[in-house]
Design goal:
The complex is a heterodimer of chains A (294) and B (282).
Chain A lengths: L11 H27 L2 E3 L6 E3 L3 H8 L1 H34 L4 H9 L6 H12 L5 H8 L10 H29 L3 H9 L4 H12 L1 H18 L1 H8 L10 H11 L3 H32 L1
Antiparallel strand pairs in A: 1-2
Helix pairs in contact in A: 1-13, 2-13, 3-7, 3-10, 5-7, 5-11, 7-10, 7-11, 8-9, 10-13, 12-13
Chain B lengths: L5 H28 L20 H10 L11 H31 L5 H10 L9 H10 L6 H5 L6 H13 L2 H9 L4 H12 L1 H16 L3 H6 L8 H11 L6 H21 L1 H11 L2
Helix pairs in contact in B: 1-13, 2-13, 3-7, 3-10, 10-13, 10-14, 12-13
Classes of the chains: A mainly alpha (294), B mainly alpha (282).
Chain lengths: 294, 282
């Protein structure tokens, strides 16, 4: 943490930190404190005056069927994206770790969705599932399913889960592969000599040794599903049909920026802040531990 | 490989090929669609091989855009995206290098407070402070400007931590030698620390360029002027317009153009990218 050799200068370190701190204070901390403050205020119908209402805005959220519905949608969406994204990535990483020939080639071919913006991932799958030209929609029609994510809430949800998962698999894949390659070969060979087959080795050696990576990815994926998927929802479904894909970050944008409900939107912001703080703290506690126990 | 199991190896290749196919399929379809004539892609099944309109479609969207989307030519959007991505990547790297240098190589009052203040930015993504941040940017007169697109995003806890981590591994002898030779802190930073950080800067640049290029919510909030639209943002209007005038080849061409720069960067700088990704998350 500390350097033995340092420079002596009274003013310079502050000057060096000034740009970073100025931006942090003006664009991060000040707006966040404003959100906190507004979350306990209520504006009158004309936006002329506001009064202190304590936790009323939060109580309103807790009673709002719409908000609870949005919470439920977010949980389903996040659970699905995290489970599929990590499951598929682990499977592919196991296979890439197994094959020696072509492993690098597969890696190159699997990583590029990382570079694709979530909104573009949404566009790609919108193309695949479009009721008139989408190839998947066409195949489904052959199988007797009339696909229409404009009208069917389940279809819309499946569509955004696929787009969000597709984009995230490459990230998870890279971390799982790095984790797998860090497992000492000698351990696996010793187990093989003792007669443990691939399935048993996976359960008793690989999975436990991979648990730090898995846990780390779990937190990162939940954060991704909660916050970074806004563009997919905004670009493809706009929260609909009805409220079927109204995830929390989309709702806070819609109520605040479009609906101009200041107090309600600020209270939603504060709830989201609590979620992101929780996830960050969990992530850093875990990393601290990983460093200590090596 | 521990033991030779031909069947398992076969299954492994099969699974990987299937994975690659699923990853590539949507990109392939959009690429192919962007080369078709409109009348060939009105109804599924659409062709799976290139048509003859590739050049024409791209020229059209670059100069005229997609009809009915009210978004105009795509070339200026690409320029806006490029300015934004470069501004964010370079800005984040520059101010994070300076802050990490200050935190590692100086002892001063409030040092830890500064460190934790920077840390806080990790916990405050745009999504949780949409309205108040918009208000700050509006009050500063930065709506619809490149400054507004980049400056509020260039605070970076991750980059600061990465450089701090790296500076801590730089041998003390270097700073000692520099001091003995009479070099001031800024000269040490410029002549020794910066050249040593080249690899980290390159790795971080790849990640941050992609991050900057792919910004969506932020430009959506602070740009209302069509001349400031970025290409990733325009996608939403394409999708909306598709309901009335489904100009699929052109919409596909815009999609391809929007993902081309970050994909090219990731493929050409793969080594840096993987290094940067794994390290920034530590």
């Amino acid at each position: 943490m500390h350097k033995r050799v340092t420079f002596d200068h009274k003013l310079l370190p502050y000057l060096l930190l000034a740009p970073q701190l100025a931006i942090t204070l003006v664009f991060f901390i000040w707006p966040a404190s404003q959100a906190l403050w507004q979350s306990v205020l209520q504006e009158d119908a004309f936006g002329l005056s506001s009064r202190f209402v304590g936790l009323d805005n939060f109580a309103r959220l807790a009673r709002s069927a719409e908000y609870l519905g949005s919470l439920r949608v977010t949980l389903v969406f996040s659970a699905a994206v995290t489970a599929f994204g990590m499951g598929i990535a682990l499977l592919l990483a196991m296979m890439a770790d197994h094959v020696i020939r072509g492993a690098t080639g597969y890696k190159t071919l699997l990583i590029w969705p990382y570079a694709v913006a979530p909104a573009i991932a949404g566009l790609l799958w919108f193309f695949m599932f479009h009721p008139t030209i989408g190839i998947v929609a066409w195949l489904l029609k052959g199988g007797g399913v009339l696909w229409n994510h404009h009208l069917n809430g389940t279809h819309a949800m499946v569509l955004i889960v696929i787009a969000a998962t597709w984009k995230q698999v490459s990230y998870n894949f890279l971390f799982f592969l790095a984790g797998l390659q860090a497992i000492p070969r000698s351990l696996i060979e010793a187990a093989a000599i003792d007669g443990a087959g691939p399935g048993k080795r996976f359960r008793t050696i690989i999975l436990p040794l991979l648990s730090p990576t898995t846990f780390f990815l779990l937190v990162v994926n939940l954060t991704y599903a909660f916050f970074d998927t806004f563009p997919i929802v905004h670009a493809v479904t706009e929260g609909g049909p009805g409220q079927a894909t109204m995830i929390l970050v989309y709702k806070v944008y819609k109520d605040g920026f479009v609906g101009l409900d200041l107090g309600g939107s600020a209270a939603q912001s504060v709830v989201l802040m609590a979620i992101v703080i929780l996830l960050t703290v969990v992530q850093f506690r875990f990393i601290e531990r990983r460093v200590q126990y090596g | 490989m521990v033991e030779n199991r031909p069947l398992l190896t076969f299954v492994a290749h099969l699974t990987l090929l299937l994975g690659v196919a699923i990853v590539a399929l949507p990109i392939w379809i959009v690429l192919v669609t962007s080369s078709q004539r409109l009348e060939d892609v009105i109804q599924a099944p659409i062709p799976m091989w290139f048509g003859d309109q590739l050049l024409q479609n791209y020229t059209d969207v670059l100069t005229a855009g997609v009809q009915g989307s009210f978004s105009g030519a795509v070339a200026p959007m690409l320029r806006n995206s490029l300015v934004m991505a470069l501004g964010i990547a370079i800005g984040k790297i520059a101010i994070s290098l300076l802050s990490a240098f200050a935190i590692v190589y100086f002892r001063f009052p409030l040092r830890m407070l500064c460190f934790w203040t920077i840390f806080l930015t990790l916990m405050l993504p745009v999504e949780v402070r949409i309205l108040p941040t918009y208000k700050v940017v509006a009050d500063l007169g930065m709506l619809n400007s490149y400054a507004g697109l980049t400056i509020p995003l260039i605070a970076s806890a991750t980059a600061t931590f990465l450089f701090r981590q790296f500076f801590l591994t730089v041998p003390d002898e270097l700073a000692e030698a520099a001091r003995v030779d009479g070099a001031g802190p800024l000269k040490f930073f410029w002549d020794i620390l910066l050249p040593l950080s080249r690899t980290n800067i390159a790795a971080l640049f790849v990640i941050l360029f992609i991050y900057g290029w792919n910004q969506y919510l932020w430009p959506l909030l602070i740009t209302t002027d069509a001349s400031m639209t970025t290409i990733v943002m325009s996608v939403q209007r394409m999708i909306e317009a598709a309901d009335d005038t489904p100009e699929w080849p052109r919409i596909a061409a815009v999609g391809v153009l929007a993902m081309l720069p970050p994909v090219v960067i990731i493929l050409t700088m793969q080594r840096w990218f993987v290094k940067g990704l794994i390290e920034t998350e530590k």
